[in-house]
Structure formats: C-alpha cells, structure tokens
Amino acid sequence: GAIAGIVDVTERKRLEERYHTMVRTAMDGFWLTDAKGKFLDVNDSYCALTGYTREELLGMSVTDVEASERPEETARHIERIKQIGYDRFETRHRGKDGRIIDIEVSTNFTDVEGGRFFVFLRDITERKQAEKTLKESQHDLSHAQAVARIGSWRLDIRRNELLWTDETYRLFGIPKGTPMTYEKFLAAVHPEDRQYVDQKWQAALR
C-alpha cells in the first residue's frame, strides 16, 4: 500500500511569481544574497548598471563589486546589519569595465534559510556629481567674495531665516554658521541707520 499527502502550493506559487515580477521590473538594482554576501539572485537593472551578466554575478559576492570598503570592512558591515536587521547607506561599486558607480543601498536581513539579505540599489552618480559641482561653485563664490570683500544672503520668508555667505559673516563680525534672522540682522545695523534699513527691507518684501 501507499500513503500520499497533497499540499496546496497555489498561494506560495503566487507569491513567488509576484516576487519575480517585482524584482524583474524594478528600475533600481536588486540583490538577494546569503548571510555572507554571496549573490543568490540579481535583476536586469543591476546587470545593466554594472555591465555584468546575471550568470557572472551569481558566481560573485558583495566584496567583488564593492569599491569603497575593504573585504574585512564589508564583512563587519554585514555583521552589523544582521544584528540590526536593516540599513540604508551610500557606497561605491565597481562595474565590469572598471568604472566606479555611486550607489545608495537599502537592505533588509531576514533570518530564514541560514539568513537572507534583500537589497535594493540606486544609481546616484548624477546626484553626487551635481553635489560636487554645487560645492565647487559655492567654494568659488566664497573665494571671490572674500577677495572683493562683498557678502550676499538669501531669505526664506516663511521661516524668517537668513542664509548668509561666509564673507557676510566676516563683514558683520558674527561667528560663521550662527543661525540668522531678520531681527538679528537688524540688531547688527548701526542704530542711526536701523530705521532706514528697516523701511527699505519692508519695501523690498512688499
């Protein structure tokens, strides 16, 4: 004789199909790794980002693409995430052609099947370049104003917050980075000029 058991796996199959659809169509890169960082699954977006094929990546691990941390640092980082359960951070990856890619990582760890990391990865190279360009522009402005002894500021009207350049702080003799408001600015104006400056200020706001 024989004894047979039948298990309905319809819901499990449905969840697996939903998972694969989500991963396959995601605009961001995706990994599934084991507890040590070996790739178990990757999506097309990450392959396109790095230039590796899926087959190549499935024979690799996190340390093979990580460009900001040494292998031992990555191992310690993995252990910290396993303790906390999740993390979000910026790092850099190395593509197949050697180019460096700025990446924002969002990862969750689940303690099943020996441990699994679900990782989404976003290419932030353009954003980092824009930040670098802005920082360089701000440095150039600060240097030019220091040479010319000219300061400038911007006003957030809703917050009543003044944003001063470094040279403006120096001209007024106020420590750099001191949070500024209109009232603080007016208090720094010579008493004999205060009413005149206030009138011009109010007219400009109107």
Give the SSE map:
Layout lengths: L9 H16 L3 E6 L4 E4 L1 H7 L3 H4 L4 H4 L5 H14 L1 E9 L5 E11 L5 E8 L1 H24 L4 E4 L4 E4 L1 H7 L9 H7 L2 H15 L1
Antiparallel strand pairs: 1-2, 1-5, 3-4, 4-5, 6-7
Short description:
The protein is of the alpha+beta class and 206 residues long. It contains 9 helices and 7 strands.
Could you characterize what this model shows?
It is a single chain. This protein is of the alpha+beta class. 48% of the residues lie in helices and 22% in strands. The chain is built from 9 helices and 7 strands. It has helices at residues 10-25, 44-50, 54-57, 62-65, 71-84, 125-148, 166-172, 182-188, 191-205; strands at 29-34, 39-42, 86-94, 100-110, 116-123, 153-156, 161-164. The strands form 2 sheets. A 5-stranded antiparallel sheet has the order 2-1-5-4-3, sandwiched between helices. A two-stranded antiparallel ribbon has the order 6-7. Strand 3 (86-94) and strand 4 (100-110) form a beta hairpin. The chain is elongated. The N and C termini lie far apart (94 Å). The model has no long low-confidence stretch (mean pLDDT 88).
